[in-house]
Specification:
One of its GO terms (cellular component) is plasma membrane. One of its GO terms (biological process) is response to antibiotic. With 380 residues, the chain is of the alpha+beta class. 30% of the residues lie in helices and 36% in strands.
Length: 380
């Protein structure tokens, strides 16, 4: 019985050893994992920084009447586009027409008095030569003529003012743009220079205001000169990336002492009305020009707590972990400020197949930029 038991244990041990040997032989024969590898790029690059901005209209008008009166007509559709000079509101003009007629009558009376005064002054001139009137009477008639002339001037000014008031009963758009809602409707009293009728904002182009810290401002000054205004990229909430293009046209003349920031302004075309005053916007502005930037695909950069690293492939196709100092992103690429040099090969796809440094891989060379790979495939 003991002999049979020993024989059985020996057989089991031999079987286990054979199985282990087979497993090791299979492990040794497993092919290395296939990963995509790209060469590190080194080329001139412009670095862009992201900012949060707010959209504003270049021209904003709060429309108030210049004369008082009861509103007779609202001549626009709320929210529509209007042109400069379009009629927006009409105030009852009848009291102002009456004032215009009264001013016309005052002017006619004053002109009549002036005609009489001039005639008497001319007659006094002849009478003085023949010594038929005294010098005092001659001076009195000339003074009457001058007083009548002043009365005519005053009457003409009063008539001009009455005509202006009559004209102001027709409230027109002072700028072209989009009109807001009517704050007062027909039949209500509008007080001169007080009652808010509506608001009007220009729509094309639009301004985007954003603020930058002092360090970024100093770095970006070379891009903004009287002869050169740099391009900026703008994106709105819900839009992927920065699909809109504008131009930087203004930098404030002082920094905000409370926040340590300075204000920038960009002008952006708005022919379709995409931008509305008050919207938040994402802005990208060029801040640094590098003559030689080391660039890698952002998918190749991994994070270990606060450290960033990539997997470098050596001449024997073995991977090694390399810590890097990453800078700003440029679309799909990341600027590497320290840790890599051009021409080195790094893993960009298949990183999940690498369990430890020193693993041998089967590299497949691809382009660092995805669009470059797409162009090669299209050419084939």
């Amino acid at each position: 019985m003991v002999r049979i038991l020993k024989t059985t244990l020996l057989v089991l041990a031999a079987t286990a050893l054979a199985a282990c040997g087979a497993d090791k032989q299979g492990a040794r024969q497993a092919p290395p994992p296939v990963v995509e590898v790209a060469q590190v790029l080194a080329e001139p690059a412009t670095l862009w920084n992201d900012f949060t901005g707010r959209v504003a209209a270049p021209e904003t008008v709060e429309l108030r009447p210049r004369v008082s009166g009861y509103l007779e007509q609202v001549a626009f559709t709320e929210g529509e586009l209007v042109q400069r000079g379009d009629l927006l509101f009409s105030i009852d003009p009848r009291p102002y027409r009456a004032r215009e007629r009264a001013a016309q009558a005052e002017l006619a009376s004053a002109r009549s008095q002036l005609t009489l005064a001039r005639s008497q002054a001319e007659r006094a001139q002849q009478l003085l030569k023949s010594r038929a009137i005294s010098r005092d009477e001659f001076d009195r008639r000339n003074a009457t003529r001058d007083s009548a002339k002043a009365a005519v001037d005053a009457a003409e000014a009063a008539l001009e003012n009455a005509r202006l008031d009559l004209q102001y009963t027709q409230v027109e758009a002072p700028i072209s743009g989009r009109v807001g809602r009517a704050f007062i409707t027909r039949g209500n009293l509008a007080s001169a220079d007080q009652t808010l009728l509506t608001t009007l904002v220009s729509v094309d182009p639009m301004y985007v205001y954003f603020e930058s810290d002092q360090q970024t401002f100093v770095a970006s000054r070379s891009f903004f000169t009287p002869e050169q205004h740099p391009e900026v990229r703008v994106g709105l909430a819900g839009e992927p990336g920065f699909p809109h293009r504008g131009q930087l046209d203004f930098i404030d003349n002082r920094l905000n002492s409370h926040t340590g920031t300075i204000q920038f302004r960009a002008v952006i075309p708005n022919p379709t009305g995409t931008f509305k005053p008050g919207q938040f916007a994402r802005v990208q502005m060029p801040t640094e020009q590098l003559s030689r930037a080391v660039l890698v695909n952002r998918k190749a950069v991994l994070t270990d707590q606060d450290r960033r690293f990539v997997y470098v492939v050596d001449g024997e196709n073995r991977v090694a972990r390399r810590e890097v100092e990453a800078g700003p992103q440029m679309d799909e690429l990341v600027v590497i400020r320290r840790g890599l040099d051009s021409g080195e090969r790094i893993v960009v796809n298949g990183l999940q197949k690498i369990f430890a440094a020193g693993v041998q891989v089967e590299p497949q060379l691809v382009q660092m930029r995805a669009q470059d790979s797409d162009r090669q495939l299209a050419a084939r």
